[in-house]
Amino acid sequence: MYQLTRVCKPSRARLVHLVGIGIRPPFVRLLPSRSLATDALVPPKPSRPRPQIPTEPLPRSRLLSRILLVAKYTGLAALSSTFGVLLLGAGIFIHDAFTYTNKDVHRVPVLPLALHPEQGGPKNLPIVRALVDDVEDDEAKKLLDKPKLVIVGGGWGAISVLQTLSPGDWHVTVVSPETFTTFTPLLPSAAVGTVQVRSLVEPLRKIVARLRGHFVDAKAVDLVMSERLLELETQASTGELKRVYLPYDKLIIACGSTSSTHGIQGLEHCFQLKTISDAQAIRRRILDNFETASLPTTTPEERKRLLSFIVCGGGPTGVETAAEIYDFCQEDIVKYYPKICREEVSIHVIQSREHILNTYSEAISKYAEEKFRRDSVDLVTSARVGAVHPDHVVYTVRSLDGTITTHEIPTNFVLWSTGIAMNPFTRRVSALLPNQVHKKAIEVDAHLRVKGAPLGDVYAIGDCATIETSVVSHLLELVDEADKNKDGKIDFDEFDFMVARIKHRIPMAESQLQKVRTLFDLYDSDADNSLSLNELCKLLEEIGNKITALPATAQVASQQGKYLGKKLNQLAKKREVLEANDIQDLDEAVSVPFRYTHLGSLAYIGNAAVFDLGNLSFMGGLIAMYAWRSIYWSEQVSARTRFLLMMDWIIRGVWGRDLSRL
Q1: Which residues face 242 on adjacent strands?
Q2: Which of 104, 279, 303, 500 has the greatest number of beta carbons closer than 10 A?
Q3: In whole angstroms, what is the distance from residue 219 CA to residue 177 CA?
Q4: Does residue 122 contact residue 145 with C-beta atoms inside 8 Å?
Q5: What angle, 0 to 180 degrees and rounded to 10, lies between the N-to-C axes of helices 492-505 and 475-482?
Q6: Signed CA dihedral, 516, 521, 522, 525: sign only
Q7: Predicted model pTM
Q8: Model pLDDT for residues 36-84, shown as the tens digit of each residue
């Protein structure tokens, strides 16, 4: 027999405490003993279930929890990254598998005229009526019977036309001496290595491929409008120059401009900044100057001359170039070249007006000038360059009292960025037409048609063109339309009709024709409630003098190109209907005159940027600079250049500019 003996009887609270700290409570054990006689008479008590004491899990430390959480998400990130890399690799593999295949290019058809063009034209030159890829496939053959559209140039205007045209409507041929288009606003950045030149160019053949168009690597030199022949100059593999004729049904001149010389002597010692070649030449000269200045044999006077950089012109190009040179010195030269090179650097901006960025708002001009003064950039305003010599620049400054003083700056680098002028081809076209009197560009009407050329045959857009602002030249036509009673005078009702016609012919005159009655009364000198021809001539002449010509900017060229592309699309769709109705002025029938919408101007001024949005001006540091970058990034021609440009900015920020002299 055994006797149940309880060793201890802890309280419930203590049991909970013992369990909580991991100690098992005392247990009941059996002890041997002698049984009593009365025990057999007592029935055993039924056993009651013992209450379950709740136990709590051991608390986990906060540090351990955080470590496990970090490990969890790190593992997920690593796993997803590995999956992404594998997926990207698989995509590249699949792309390569389908890209690197043998394509059959045997027995490519070529028209006989493309191999042996006939002679003709005023100079008896070969006439390229067929190109070697005109019948290479079925899609190309469909375009043979389409009207021939020839575009001279590969700048902003030409690219906008190509991007707006609908495929299949025109037989398109692009003529340019360069095989690529350039994003010109970022040329100052390329000149110091902030971005690479490859990030700013896109092959013209890739752009024109969407239209199944053609590209001719040549330079336009002359034009035969009576026979619709464009004379081109090509270069053979031996270097020999040859000339041919290229026929056209419609011709678009978009070949840009050159820098204006203003009659200054010695400009052969200056750099320009209009092409990729210009940017590369500037970069080489800047690096050469710093390398020579670092030599121990260079004298202090020579070092100062080598490290003196002069920019002639305070417009956007000149200001941005000066800012890029300053950034280059602050961020790279000071790190990798002798410190004395950075100390001896001097940057000078010579501006003929009283302020730099004078076409922007006054607040922006003052902000940019103050920024340059803080950066120790020498601003020379109200000055004119007299001559440029190989080792120095001579300029004059007019003081407030009218006194003119002459100064010299020793230098080995001069950038000339002051105004535009005609290139040889546009000068030749202008000389062919007697009514072309503009000295800087080809004059076009509101439909962008070259004045004096056969109606609707030749257009001009971009820097090489300027829209007419003279109203008085249309005096006789306007009087003939408005003078209803043919009395030789224009009353107010007739003048009101004339104003509507002027706004339609020259949309840029609208701002000068807001108060019609006031204008009428102002020039009605004899108060007879009518305008004589002399009074009307004086009125129209003064209105034309107040009209401001459109600036030679990429924004203007781009809008003109898009306008012309849309018009050509409409002409292609409605060609048969227009020809059946014998309509002479096709442009008027399908489109309204061109109207320019100013979207704002912007400029980079050294880790800062300024924006002129008309009534609103915005300027600032890094935030404005990133906004400036975002706008230019979005304006890139292709996704390829966007990616390359983004990578260039990242590389410049992490590793700095490339200092290699290539």
Answers
A1: 234
A2: 279
A3: 5
A4: no
A5: 130
A6: positive
A7: 0.84
A8: 444 444 555 555 666 665 555 556 677 888 888 889 889 999 999 899 9
